[in-house]
Amino acid sequence: MNTIYKKSFLKLSDLNYQEIIYLIKLSKFFKKKKKDKKEKKYLKGKNIVLIFEKQSTRTRCAFEVAAYDQGANTTYLSPTDTHMGYKESIHDTAKVLGKMYDGIQYRGYHDNILKKIQKYSKIPVWNGLTNTFHPTQILADLLTMTETLPKKSIQEITCAYIGDAKNNIANTLLEAANITGLKLNIISPENYWPKKNIRDIKNKKNILYTKNIEKGVYKVDFIYTDVWVSMGDKSMKWKKKIKELYDYQVNQKMLNMTKNSNVKILHCLPALHDKESTLGLKIHKKYNLKNGLEISNNVFFSKKNLCFEQSENRLHTIKALLVSCLHKKKILI
User: Fold this and answer.
1) Which one of 85, 227, 280, 284 is least enclosed by Cβ atoms within 10 Å?
2) Do domains 12-133+314-326 and 153-220+222-259+264-303 have the same CATH topology?
3) How far apart are CA 266 and CA 159, in angstroms?
4) Selection from 281, 251, 270, 272 nearest residue 311 by Cα
5) Could you give phi then psi for residue 103, rounded to 5 degrees?
6) How many angstroms separate the Cα of 170 from the Cα of each of 160, 187, 327?
């Protein structure tokens, strides 16, 4: 029985442990079938609308290619392509889309918009990123971790998230730890820990909060980081974050602290590791940085970094999600 059929995926905790494990296994199945060019199309005739209020590279590409591979059609709506919230209510837009499409992806700012779209469209809705959660990313991260350490169960894997943990990645990793038993260390100054209402979902022994880097990274399997600043942030915010978080940069010194020669790096991208982007150049110049911001350039380009594997895995996990939500029968794998 396919228990994910017609479900929405607004946050990772919309699924239970068995459903998450099934999606990871199904992702591996689709990944192999695509590589072998033996993929069967389960979504012929399905129509999916992709609403993007925030810019995207990996999320948009992963949804579009996943849908295409499975025979579905997609419509991309940018902020300038829809009247939603401005000239037309979310209620009205969602009802219209629910009559025309089989599923809706939304990438934007507020979770209450997602919930309204789900409520009024009455079709599966998937969260491509909001300010609070990023479940499609963490699904791909869980796939990446289990692929990298095939002899370990999720409960035996330890991931350290370091830096600015008051964000959607850390929040969703906490959900993953609560559901799957993943061992998770949150490492940052206390004022950068996730908000209290997120931290207090459950108090489990597999979750550690610490500002002590050496303690937090010791013997971990993965170190995960994300950008601290974005183009929309004010310069004063940049200055404060860089001052308070620069000691938490993922670099060779930190890797040595793990005492694990096989430790790997996770990063959901984009990364400010060099001067080859407009924002990267601006920050390196303004703060006289020589070797990256949240991650050093040499570590970013080392074999330790799995960020590009994570990016590819977005395609396979999103494909597994779409098929499970829109195809009634459970795929035998």
Assistant:
1) 85
2) yes
3) 9
4) 270
5) -160, 155
6) 10, 10, 31
Q: Which residue has the tokens 């407009």?
A: 278
Strands (E), the chain: 47-52, 73-77, 103-107, 125-129, 158-162, 183-187, 207-210, 222-225, 264-267
Please report, for the chain, the start and end positions of each structural domain, with discontinuous segments joined by +.
Answer: 12-133+314-326, 153-220+222-259+264-303
Here the tokens at position 330 are 């459970």
Q: What share of the chain is helix, strand, coil (3-state, %, to 5)?
A: 45, 15, 40
Write down the pTM of the prediction: 0.97
Domain 153-220+222-259+264-303 bears CATH identifier 1.10.3720.10: no
Quick one: pLDDT band at residue 236, thresholds 50, 70, 90? confident
Mean pLDDT, range 35-51, rounded to an integer:
98
Q: Is CATH 3.30.70.560 what the domain over 12-133+314-326 is classified as, yes or no?
A: no
d(CA 59, CA 292): 24
